[in-house]
From TrEMBL:
GO terms for cellular component: endoplasmic reticulum membrane. It is found in: Endoplasmic reticulum membrane. The keyword Oxidoreductase applies. Its cofactor is heme. Belongs to the cytochrome P450 family. It holds the Pfam family p450. It comes from the Eukaryota. Its main location: endoplasmic reticulum. One of its GO terms (biological process) is lipid metabolic process. Heme binds at residue 457. This is Cytochrome P450 4A11-like isoform X4. Keywords: Endoplasmic reticulum, Heme, Iron, Membrane, Metal-binding, Monooxygenase, Oxidoreductase, Transmembrane, Transmembrane helix. CDD domains: CYP4B-like.
Amino acid sequence: MSVSVLSLTRPLDTVSGLLQLASLLGLALLLLKAAQLYQRRQWMLKAIQQFPSPPSHWFFGHKQEFQTGLELQELKKRTEKYPCASPRWLWGSKVILVVYDPDYMKMILGRSDPKSEGAYRFMAPWIGYGLLLLNGETWFQHRRMLTPAFHYDILKPYVRLMADSVQVMLDKWEELLSQNSHLEIFEHVSLMTLDTIMKCAFSYQGNHQADRNSQSYIQAIKDLNYLVFSRVRNVFYQKDIFYWLTSEGHRNHKACQLAHQHTDRVIKLRKAQLQEEGELEKVRNKRHLDFLDILLLAKMENGRGLSDKDLRAEVDTFMFEGHDTTASGISWILYTLATHPEHQQRCREEIQSLLGDGASITWEHLDQMPYTTMCIKEALRLYPPVPSVGRELSKPITFPDGRSLPRGFLVSLSFYALHHNPNVWPKPEVFDPSRFAPDAARHSHAFLPFSGGSRNCIGQHFAVNEMKVAVALILLRFELAPDPFRIPVPTPRIVLMSKNGIHLHLRKLL
């Protein structure tokens, strides 16, 4: 009997011992992780001791700033109270230095620091590692390869295509306004800019503003704007293994699939066209190739060129950047003109004297609307399409005022805060187009709606041209007024959006 009892208790003792050992190992690992986090927090506290900021919670950081829905207002308060830059704690072990001084901007953008991996990697499942996310030599090679796609000889004929897309949108507005003078414009403008980029950069024909696939793509991009930004700021969403199990992770995956289906269709169709007899030779003989031609021929003529994965990453990147940032810019410009009718009318008179009914807007016209251009720039100052970008310091930096940061520190270049910094722009909330008069002086890095330095927006001239075409043709057909009951609430996402849409009253001009 005693032997049988012993034989039963020994395995139990063994299991109990293993559980105790596992518990001790787990506790040791937990204590080690806690020590590492404490050590990292101490390192960060030391690094930012020269930069004051509002009080923060030891674990939640400055989370209260994000939850109020008034994050940008809080940011503007920082520019008034803390000169040049201030730290923002996302949580207890992650802090970013928010920069909003032109000298600081110039210094950082003049370096070759990489994009901050911690935040930008969350965009990779959506747009892959194309021009936006790449760093180092690979980024330089892709940038050099794609720069010819934005040669002015390529951009010239795009003006007609842009105008066609805008007119389609305006015709649709006239139909809708027969029922109501009120309109939420952001989605309409997004469909128009997507239509434009499809025609200009991807040689895609047809009207995409009424296409169900295009509407699904626009909604997917809207969702991803929110989901990526939400993930960056949630300490519990940092690890992929946990995030993809959450409801937000599932939504992210579904939205990525919808976005990829759209770009895959574009690539597949253009590849099929290039297989047609004579089409490939015709494209090769072009003096200048469009964006997708460059990508496809780099692959077709050189097996060591772009892989299919790299090809789709660049298409996904430019499909997003080429329409969403421009849609944000145009929508906020229209809202700004709606709230400043005297400037709106002066722009309209300038455009009428130049274009008449606007039926034949050309490349040459775009440089002949100085006041409208000044208003566009001032609106972009107030509402920059990309509110911020991030960098991770690859080496220590000492700023002009003597304060410094170590290698590996994260910085956020806040263009929104820069543009609203009263030390840079007197009375920054006042809409004043004269700030951009030809003889007006300003710091070289005081106005950065398209970033700056070597990593500035490759498509900025394309975007500005589209903004001018859209604003000119819209003002010729409609008078804009704000909806006093639905004032837009700017909210930072990957692009600057409105929390409640951008609602305007439109009146058809005779």
